[in-house]
Amino acid sequence: MLVLDKDWSGHPLGAPEAWPDILKTSISTVLNSPESMILAWGTERLTFFFNETYFPLLGPRLSWAMGSPFEEVWADAWEQAKPIIDEAFAGRSQRFVDLPWKLDTDRGQADTWFTFSYSRILDPKGEVAGLFIFTNETTARVLADAALERSQAELREANRLLAQRVEERTAERDRVWQLTNDLMATARLDGHLVQVNPAWERLLGWTEQELLTRPFVEIIDPADHAEAADVVGRLAAGEVVGGFVDHVLTKDGTARTIMWDAVPEGNSDLFYIIGRDLTEQHSAEEALRQAQKMQAVGQLTGGLAHDFNNLLTGVMGNLELIQMRLASGRLEDLERFVLAAQGAGRRAASLTQRLLAFSRRQTLDPRATEVNRLIGGMEDLLRRTIGPQNELEIVGAGGLWPAYIDAGQLENALLNLCINARDAMPEGGRITIETANKWLDSRAARERDLPEGQYLSICVTDTGTGMSADMISRAFEPFFTTKPLGQGTGLGLSMIYGFARQSGGQVRIYSEMGMGTTMCIYLPRHTGDAPSEVDEEAALTAAAGGSGTILVVDDEAAIRHLVDEVLDDVGYTVIGAADGAAGLKVLQSGAKIDLLITDVGLPGGMNGRQVADAARHLRPGLKVLFITGFAENAAVGNGHLEQGMELLTKPFSLEALTAKVSAMMDKP
Ligand code: ADP
Ligand code: MG
Fold first, then answer.
1. So what's the pLDDT on residue 543?
2. Do 445 and 452 touch, CB atoms closer than 8 A?
3. What is the pLDDT of residue 542?
């Protein structure tokens, strides 16, 4: 249409009807091609033809370009196009890819890019008649390529910066790794170090080579091996373990105290570990602790001396009075002084008992005990003790596990806790005793300094004054009291603490000033035999008279004599021996012996426990009653005795001795 609509009069080519065939054919080739094509016809003044696909390339020229001279249509590019056209006419057809042109476009002057080729059209005589030009604008692709290239360059630059920064950071980290005095390492769960920082060699003396080639437990103090194994186990389970302390051996044979933090690397067998040397800090703390201990010992001995002097004054004073009365022949009413002296003696015995309880050296008589029943049995006594202005509530857990404890000591502890609670509530208030079963997982157990496992708790809560942090930290010290002189002994909690620890448990104070106090005793669950009451009853049947032969081994003649005297009175036959060897001779002689009573601390190289074992070797199943002071307690298994063996603790009353002996003799 553009060709036909144009007024060709005055055009050098003349009217289209007169055009030579070759021109017509060429135009038709161009017009019918789907490629973007142009035809430049002629040799001097090139006439410009183009097809529809070429339209967009013409921009503002479209309306007038058809049939116009090439150099007008592309005037703004002529300088660049002319040499290419000349080359083409000269027979050197060329192909150009993405050649840039500055051209007028619909969007004004712009940078454009074209891929094109020029080729000659020859007429039948072989003369050049014009040029075919394939041409595609590639501006969009070139710009896109350029943008891509730019963004890739930016990316490359960003990567380079990142790499550089990582390198700098790594260098900084590396300086920390190199310079710190903390021990840093990567280790494997199989117990080998994989990587260590130089602090290891500086602090411990071992070379990196030595550290990496053998299991790390080899440089841990054997006393800490169990804990180290536990820590590795927890890491293997994915737990982060912080703040554990162990002793690490140095190459020169000393040990450093190190506090560690360890973090497992998920999904691998690696963990990271950082240790800080606490050796100096520890020895300072140790010195402080030692000083505090000396202070506590001072307090203890001072308090003890004071109390004991009072009690001794009671004993000696009354004996002196008796002596004076005897001297002057006034025998009436002597009983009064005897009773007073005995009372003071008993109080002295109970004082030592309480001290021994604190030092965890009392002789416990543990039995399977149902704690709820024990508390129930005390309810009356507790109510009377705390007085009518205080309420008492007892909340016993159903299905409470039994405990293996000395029931008398637990009663004592509860009574003491209730008295403390009462004293903390001068205006009256409420005391709650609550029992519960407790599963202490490893964390809860560690917090309470107990092995993991099943416990029962007995908590006494009051609504009283509460305690400051300082009071809480000192409350378990013997003779620590805030009560006025004559009211507090400061022995209650220390004794409870000793009892709980000795029973494999713990005591904890939960309190705040003004908020009341909860004191909890934790005791391990007993899984053995069910509690029985028969024993207690048997023990209560007083010595009504008995028969049988008893061998008494004690190096103290006075005690042998005393025992002989009192047991003889009740009807037993008593044979005495001053040491283990003498006692065993009696047994070897074949004499009939029903019960062996032996002191635990004996001279002559054989203690009471060994005498008992030898005796049972000679007479299997022989009943044995040990008499102990506290120190020998360990010798007889800390209260865990075999069947048919029992304990009596010094000092004991003669009544207690006969009751115990007859209970044992009466048992089958
Ligand atoms: P005592 O009762 O003879 O003072 P304890 O060892 O029983 O000795 O207690 C030590 C101290 O702990 C008490 O003097 C008191 O200051 C504090 N205390 C104990 N129990 C409680 C309680 N339930 N509420 C507040 N303070 C308490
Ligand atoms: Mg008390």
1. 40
2. yes
3. 40
Distances (CA, A) of 545 to 217, 548, 596, 598, 659: 64, 11, 18, 22, 10
Taking Cα atoms as reference points, which of 537, 377, 525, 380 lies closest to residue 440? Answer: 525
Provide the pLDDT for residue 447. Answer: 86
Residue 417: predicted pLDDT: 94
| DSSP letter (8 states) at residue 525 | B
Strand (E) or helix (H) holding 171: helix 139-179
| First and final C-alpha spacing in the chain | 136
Element (H, E) at 72: helix 70-73
CA–CA distance, 519 with 492 (Å, rounded to integer): 12
pLDDT the model gives residue 536: 40
Burial 94-119 (b: 16+ CB within 10 A, else e): eeeeebebebbbeeeeeebbbbbbbe
Residue nearest to atom 8 of ligand 1 (CA): 490
Ligand number nearest CA of 415 is 2
Strand order, beta sheet including 623-628: 573-577, 549-553, 595-599, 623-628, 645-649
Pocket of ligand 1 (CB under 6 A): 416, 420-421, 424, 462, 464-465, 467, 471, 475, 480-483, 488-494, 517
Residue 511: name the closest of 465, 571, 568 by CA: 465
**Rounded distance from Cα 482 to ligand 1 centre (Å):** 7
Q: Which of 351, 385, 420, 463 to mutate to test the pocket of ligand 1 (most atoms within 8 A of CB)?
A: 420
| Residue 456, token pair as written in the block | 């029962």
Helices 371-386 and 407-423 sit at what angle, rounded to 10 degrees? 40
Give the bridge partners for 438, in sequence order.
455
Peptide bond into 651 cis (omega under 30): yes
Going from the Cα of 297 to the center of ligand 1, the distance in angstroms, rounded, reads 19
In ligand 1, which atom is closest to the CA atom of 489?
3
Q: Please report, for residues 25, 115, 281, 406, the alpha-carbon distance to residue 81 in angstroms, rounded to integers and kept in the order given.
A: 25, 13, 89, 115
**Among the bound ligands, the one closest to the CA of 483:** 1
Q: Are strands 549-553 and 517-524 parallel, antiparallel or unpaired?
A: unpaired
Report the atom number in ligand 1 closest to the C-alpha of 478.
6
In angstroms, the CA 356 to CA 576 distance is: 29
519, with CB counted inside 10 A (0-12, 13-18, 19+), is buried
- Distances 207 to 201, 210, 212, 258, 262 between C-alpha atoms, Å: 5, 5, 9, 18, 22
Check: pTM over 0.70? Answer yes or no.
Answer: no
Protein residues placing their CB within 5 Å of the ion ligand 2? 420, 492
What secondary structure does DSSP assign to 468-484, as a single string?
-HHHHHHTTSTT---SP
Could you state, in chain order, the average pLDDT of each consecutive group of 10 residues for the chain (668 residues)?
A: 87 89 92 92 90 89 92 90 89 89 85 91 89 91 93 93 92 90 94 95 95 94 91 93 92 93 92 92 76 68 76 86 90 87 84 69 78 89 85 93 89 89 93 94 88 95 94 87 78 88 93 93 86 43 66 85 84 89 88 90 81 90 83 54 81 83 86
Query: What's the token pair of residue 588?
Result: 């070897």
Distance CA 316, CA 658 (A): 27
The rounded distance, in Å, linking the Cα atoms of 567 and 546 is 9
CB 49 within 8 A of CB 153: no
Amino acid at 336: R
Residue 668 exposed, middle or buried by CB count within 10 Å (0-12, 13-18, 19+): exposed
Of ligand 1's atoms, which has the minimum distance to the CA of residue 460?
A: 23
